[in-house]
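Please complete every field before forwarding. Incomplete forms are returned to the sender.

SECTION A: IDENTIFIERS
Entry label: holo-136
Bound molecule: zinc ion
Molecule representation: SMILES string

SECTION B: INPUTS
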Amino acid sequence: MFKRKKEDEIYMKEQNFTIWLNSVRLDLYREVRKACLPGILKDRLMTAISDMSLLNVTESSLLVDCGRLDGGRIRATNEIVVCKRNRRLLLHELVHSVQGTEYDAEMVELRVLPNEATPPTPDDYVKFKAEGTKYF
Ligand SMILES: [Zn+2]
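SECTION C: PREDICTED COMPLEX
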């Protein structure tokens, strides 16, 4: 579980993070709009990107420890935690935030950001088999 840092320490980092998040939000919105994706998934992703704010995306430096994670989602609150400022990673977690499976998240990476997508890991293939797909 993630632990919070002090409020004043968080404040300065949040200002900088907000600027990054807003520029990435515009990028991702444009890329998702022009990508070839199933219609329902595209609609849900575009809505998620439009509604995205510091309330639902948090940078790991605002938290104590990410461990080995690149990013993740706190299921109870649907909050995304970004452990690197990386738009591919944010997009991946956004797919999970609209109930996409691991396969869906990897497929979206490939179709929306083909030059940045990373190949699936052996762990991913285990999840592909176990979870299947919700959208493809
Ligand atoms: Zn994932």
